[in-house]
Amino acid sequence: MMVDTLKVFVMVAEMSNFSRAAEMLCISQPGVSQTIRNLEHEFDVKLMHRSSKHVKLTEAGEILYSKAKQILEMYDAAKEEIHLLRNEITGSLKIGASFTIGEYILPRLLAEFIDEYPQIEIQTVIGNTEEIERGIRLNELGIGLVEGEVNHPDLLVNPPFMEDEMVLVAPLDHPLCSRNAIRPEMLQDQYWVFRENGSGTRAFTDRFIQDSKLRVRRSLVFNSSQGVKEAVAAGLGMTLLSRWVIRKELEAGELCCIPMKGKRFARDFFILQDTRSIKGTMALKMFMQKLRQFKI
């Protein structure tokens, strides 16, 4: 079917890589290559410049990419309208989520959503806020759920869908764990464990340290919340993490939560969409509706 061929072409164009496109489509790389060769033979023109590292569209390829996107959108819209005649909601969703949301909240949300709409195909990508933002802008993702601040002219940042409590945590033998509550100045010259740059959690922590004018004695950086948790439990320093991330460790008595006098740490979770495709599909509309109603 020509639609399947165009899906392969569009995926290669958006991934700029044959191997990544094959992984995303769950087909072999030779199969992807053959599909592109068949398309070039059909149009009798070169559609892509290939190198060992990336793929770049030719002028003809850019034309086909633009039209292929329109054709695929029309095809999906037709499928949705036909299925709606039978009161069925179908389609596909590409959801991107930053780590805290993707690992601790999204699975619960999807369990309920899939139960209500079993015919919607869902693909998820988990990365830091910066990576999810880029995926939306490159049209690799249909919707993004992030905890970090995002400002870009091509992105619509919807009102928050959930508030997240952040917690100051430390190893059990940390001197401040014996305190009922502390003041910010008591955190001077501490060892800290951070998430990587581009993470919403890292941005929140950096802002707290800067606003509190804290000196950091030493810091370690991990690119996952799990790595941060393990480092803190091993005595390498303190950190700020979502309560969702460390709730089991707190209940098991494996980490210490340090409250701060008169201060509660909180941040918002946001929905990202591309301003060029806000309308979305019926599947996306149903997911947005579920997201707004979801309670944990």
TrEMBL record:
Gene3D superfamilies: Periplasmic binding protein-like II, Winged helix-like DNA-binding domain superfamily/Winged helix DNA-binding domain. This is LysR family transcriptional regulator. PANTHER family: HTH-TYPE TRANSCRIPTIONAL REGULATOR, HTH-TYPE TRANSCRIPTIONAL REGULATOR CYSL. It comes from Paenibacillus azoreducens. CDD domains: PBP2_CysL_like. Pfam families: HTH_1, LysR_substrate. The keyword Ribosomal protein does not apply. InterPro entries: LysR_HTH_N, LysR_subst-bd, WH-like_DNA-bd_sf, WH_DNA-bd_sf. It comes from the Bacteria. Keywords: DNA-binding, Transcription, Transcription regulation. Belongs to the LysR transcriptional regulatory family. GO terms for molecular function: DNA-binding transcription factor activity; transcription cis-regulatory region binding. Residues 1-58 form the HTH lysR-type domain.
